[in-house]
Design a protein that fits this description.
heterodimer, A: alpha+beta, Ubiquitin-like (UB roll), Fumarate Reductase Iron-sulfur Protein, Chain B, domain 2, 2 domains, 5-stranded mixed beta sheet, about 10% strand, B: alpha+beta, Flavocytochrome C3, Chain A, domain 1, 5-stranded parallel beta sheet, 5-stranded antiparallel beta sheet, 18 helices, globular, binds flavin-adenine dinucleotide, binds iron/sulfur cluster, binds FE2/S2 (inorganic) cluster
Chain lengths: ~260, ~650
């Protein structure tokens, strides 16, 4: 099939970007969206032009690197998949496709379609862990965990850290991402010990990094490629309230716990 | 010639590691703070090592080329991780895991290393559960297991089809905690270009900041490479797009010897190639072989009709299907090791029984287990894999059998390391898939994750201290030493040279051509005649690359073409070494199948008399042939036999 692509081009973080239009021809409907981008890039290189830069690595929907806004939707038109899992059979011959980077203040554009998502790492560093050192751990079966909790924890833990939730949200809120990590641990006995400190530290860091508030529009859940549920946000809010009532206050910047 | 001292501790097999730990030199806490360690890689091996070393009090710098440590290729591992817990009470033990791994590796790995791996496997599971890894559980709340190829027990722990993701996120959270504490400094979007030697010891690395293009020098008391496998040398593989050999290849060229480069693993269950635009191959986890049965039509005419779209697989009657693995290997059936399953698929397709448009595919059929267990059970076990398959192939595997074909997946070969995981360059350690250590000529499923975490959590943090204990007096040397500047200049010039070729062909086009040569001559079946053709073909391609490659963009900016060019330049050298190693090994073992050496039934035929050694290749200069050193393998504790899965 033949397609028209309108792609955001931006040389670096400090320069201004603009849309540039390209044509690609004879694309197989069986090729993936990123393979279509490869074909475009090969043709640009041969012409001596700069290829379009985009993040990608695993190309099977698990690393969370790919991050395109396709026709106004993060990860494109299909539900529950990442950009790298999108196939061209989803489009029609002659279509025009608009391709942009994630647009959110905490994710500045670095070049073309690549954005900086290190703020997500910082949120995890603030408290997205259980404080155990290597070694000297009791047997893995010492604490039985109800299957239902283990499964719910796994649902939350499936988050790939792609940032589509933030990109989809008009407030650029990171609540879905943060709540997924908080829930994963809150649902496990191992995570309960530090639950209060964790939720406070992660929320504080999220606010500090300039992510917006949650106004319950649900756009994040709708666009999340891993179908992370907004019930996690409700769970996090509960955890947060409980932590304010019962637990000791964390000292921000206290160097982890 | 390089000196290969494997440093295997004396004594009984089961006591070696305990003995080693009791007597090895340690570094005291106040000195740890003065010692710096560079860890390159944030996959299971790198992240677990960086976190553990940080916890111990060392100052760690940790590098990866992705934007976040959490995106390392380990994230994509699907099926599971082995451990000898024997929770299923099915007769498993440390010895049995050790034995299965030695046998699975076709008697080409070190007994002491493999025993240690099996021994620490249980602590890995404990560690991960404590970190909050949500492994699959049974209704009673205890951990669940599944079976993998090459084993008759259920010892594989898993988290749906996303085990690697969950284990990596566990290690990443431990790493993040150390970053917060200031013990580990992270350098994301940084690519290692070379290792720096001072007085013969590894003292640092040269990296490129992939955002600004700046070349940086980093110094440390020891350098750990955890940069993963080199399967992407074949262009099409199941590895992540950025997986590369640059770090280990540069270390090889600085004097670290390379172990068994030709031991590459072709995984039997991948989605078949569908077009020349294809950028990578997708694995369908080996765990699927627990419940899926592999078959092709019994009659060539049926296969022919299927290929032309005149027949559908569900129309083939049960008695007209050839479940060739169950037929040839009744004891292990669909759970034979990977090398055996891959070759059997190739054999059927070469004989004209293959399905799919190209005839290069076999069926993996779940209908029987869906009938027996119900669709919801299969969905719970493999839901995400089925979804992944449907997205790519546009067919519903609950209704029609999957089509699969072998693809390059893993590299058992890698930098040679001793029992302490140190290379022939003092102070340079290699862990995870990047080293050659534990899997011999064939890796068993669910054992790479085990090895990566064993190395990073439980082995390296001890062994590196033995080296560092006499380094405490060395002051924090500066990256301004002439050795650093010289290596920096060489690395910069190499990249500039690539940009200045200004030829006509893209980097990818060269990579694809290299992959085609390797797949044809150095793939699933190899022979002397083909290998002798491959070596000059690769050399010629390399020459053409340096004359005619076209790299666009600037040096001082994000430039994915330049990144790829650097990696492909190294693959073009490594590819030749792989072919040389394959040619030198006149036997078939594990993933290395030389067509001249097989039993009348088509099984691999080893030559234990002459070839029971590790090939350890030594770089001798740009224009001279590498030299092969041998590390003999002595089997003191297991009897060496022909592998039998019948
Ligand atoms: C699709 C798939 C499924 C798999 N499933 C399983 C399974 O179920 N069970 C199992 O046991 N094994 C499985 N494996 C194998 C296993 O995933 C890998 O062997 C293992 O994860 C490798 O881990 P690692 O830490 O050694 O390296 P990797 O995870 O590959 O990490 C490499 C790291 O090094 C960094 N790096 C690389 N080069 C450079 C450079 N030049 N400069 C800076 N940084 C660099 C990368 O950024 C990355 O952080 C699977 C593999 C694949 C491809
Ligand atoms: S919650 Fe969903 S959309 Fe947000 S980062 Fe995680 S996987 Fe991506
Ligand atoms: S490239 Fe890894 S999720 Fe898309």
């Amino acid at each position: 099939m033949d397609l028209t692509l309108k792609i955001w081009r931006q040389k670096n973080a400090s320069s201004k970007g603009k849309f540039v239009t390209y044509k690609v021809n004879d694309i197989s409907p069986n090729s993936s969206f990123l393979e279509m981008m490869d074909i475009l890039n090969e043709s640009l290189v041969v012409k001596g032009e700069d290829p379009v830069a985009f993040d990608h690595d695993c190309r099977e929907g698990i690393c969370g690197a790919c991050s395109l806004y396709i026709n106004g939707r993060p990860h494109g038109p299909d539900a529950a998949i990442t950009t790298c899992q999108l196939h061209m059979r989803r489009f029609k011959d002659g279509d025009t496709i608009v391709i942009e980077p994630w647009r959110a203040r905490p994710f500045p554009v670095l070049r073309d379609l690549i954005v900086d998502r290190t703020s997500f790492d910082k949120i995890i560093q603030a408290g997205g862990y259980i404080s155990v050192n290597t070694g000297g751990i009791p047997d893995a079966n010492a604490i039985p965990i109800p299957k239902i909790n283990a499964d719910l924890s796994m649902d939350a833990a499936s988050c790939i850290g792609c940032g589509a939730c933030v990109a989809a949200c008009k407030n650029a809120s990171a609540m879905l991402f943060v709540s997924a990590k908080v829930s994963q641990f809150a649902l496990l006995p191992q995570g309960k010990v530090e639950a209060a400190e964790r939720v406070q530290a992660m929320v504080a860091e999220m606010d500090r990094l300039g992510f917006g508030n949650c106004t319950n529009t649900g756009a994040c859940e709708a666009e999340c490629p891993k179908e992370i549920s907004i019930t996690n946000i409700a769970r996090m809010n509960r955890e947060f309230l409980c932590s304010k009532i019962g637990a000791p206050k964390v000292k921000i910047g206290a160097g982890g716990f | 010639m390089a000196e290969l001292n494997s440093k295997i501790p004396k004594g009984e097999l089961a006591q070696k590691w305990t003995e080693y730990k009791s007597h090895t030199n340690l570094v005291n806490p106040s000195n740890k703070r003065r010692l710096e360690i560079i860890v390159v890689g944030t996959g299971l091996a790198g992240a677990s090592a960086a976190a553990s070393l940080g916890e111990l009090g060392f100052k760690v710098k940790n590098f990866c080329y992705q934007d976040s440590p959490r995106r390392a290729h380990s994230i994509a591992a699907q099926g599971g991780i082995n451990a000898a817990k024997n929770y299923q009470n099915d007769g498993d033990s440390v010895y049995r895991l050790f034995y299965d791994t030695i046998k699975g590796g076709d008697y080409r790995s070190r007994e002491a290393n493999v025993y240690r791996l099996a021994e620490v496997s249980n602590a890995i599971i404990d560690q991960c559960v404590a970190q909050g890894v949500p492994f699959a559980r049974e209704y009673g709340g205890l951990l669940d297991n599944r079976s993998f190829g090459g084993a008759q027990v259920s010892r594989t722990f898993y988290a749906r089809g996303q085990t690697g993701q969950q284990l990596l996120l566990g290690a990443y959270s431990a790493l993040s905690r150390q970053v917060k504490k200031g013990n580990v400094e992270l350098f994301t979007r940084h690519e290692m270009l070379d290792v720096v030697l001072v007085d013969g010891r590894a003292r640092g690395i040269i990296v490129r900041d992939l955002v600004t293009g700046a070349i940086e020098r980093h110094a440390a008391h020891a350098v750990v490479l955890a940069t993963g496998g080199y399967g992407n040398v074949f262009f099409l593989s199941t590895n992540a797009m950025g997986s590369n050999a640059t770090a280990i290849w540069k270390a090889y060229k600085r004097g670290a010897v390379f172990g068994n480069p030709s031991f590459t693993q072709i995984h039997p269950t991948c989605i078949p190639v569908h077009g020349d635009f294809q950028s990578k191959l997708t694995l369908m986890s080996e765990s699927l072989r627990n419940d899926g049965r592999i078959w092709v039509p019994k009659n060539k005419e049926d296969a022919e009709k299927i290929r032309h779209g005149q027949l559908k697989p569900i129309q083939i009657a049960e008695e007209d299907r050839d479940y060739y693995l169950e037929r040839r290997y009744p004891a292990f059936g669909n759970l034979v090791p990977r090398d055996v399953a891959s070759r059997a698929a190739k054999e059927r397709c070469d004989a004209g029984y293959g399905v799919g448009e190209t005839g290069l595919a076999v069926y993996l059929d779940f209908s029987e287990s869906i009938n027996r267990l119900g669709k919801n059970v299969i969905e719970e076990r493999y839901g995400n894999l089925f979804q992944m398959y449907e997205k790519i192939v546009d067919e519903n595997p609950y209704k029609t059998p999957m089509m699969i074909y072998p693809a390059v997946h893993y590299t058992m070969g890698g930098l040679w390391v001793d029992y302490e995981l140190m290379t022939t360059i003092p102070g340079l350690f290699v862990i995870g898939e990047a080293n050659f250590s534990d899997h011999g000529a064939n890796r068993l499923g669910a054992s790479a994750l085990m090895q990566g975490l064993a190395d990073g959590y439980f082995v390296l943090p001890y062994t590196i201290q033995n080296y560092l204990s006499d380094q405490i007096r060395i002051p924090n040397f500066s990256p301004d030493l002439p050795e650093f500047r010289k290596t920096e200049t060489e690395a910069t010039e190499r990249l500039k040279k690539l940009m200045n070729v200004k030829g006509t062909k893209t980097v990818d086009s060269f990579h694809k051509r290299l992959g085609m040569i390797l797949w044809e001559y150095v793939g699933m079946g190899r022979n002397a005649e083909g290998l002798k053709k491959a070596i000059p073909k690769i050399a010629a391609l390399r020459e053409e690359f340096w004359k005619d490659v076209k790299v666009t963009g600037d040096f001082n900016e994000i430039n994915p073409e330049l990144e790829k060019a650097g990696r492909v330049a190294d693959f073009l050298e490594l590819g030749e070494l792989i072919a040389r190693d394959a040619l030198s090994r006149n036997e078939s073992c594990g993933g290395h199948f030389r067509e001249e050496y097989q039993t009348p039934e088509g099984e691999a035929l080893r030559d234990d008399q002459n070839l029971m050694f590790v090939s350890a290749w030594e770089f001798t200069g740009e224009n001279s042939e590498p030299v092969m050193n041998k590390e003999p393998l002595n089997y003191e504790f297991v009897e060496v036999k022909q592998r039998n899965y019948k």
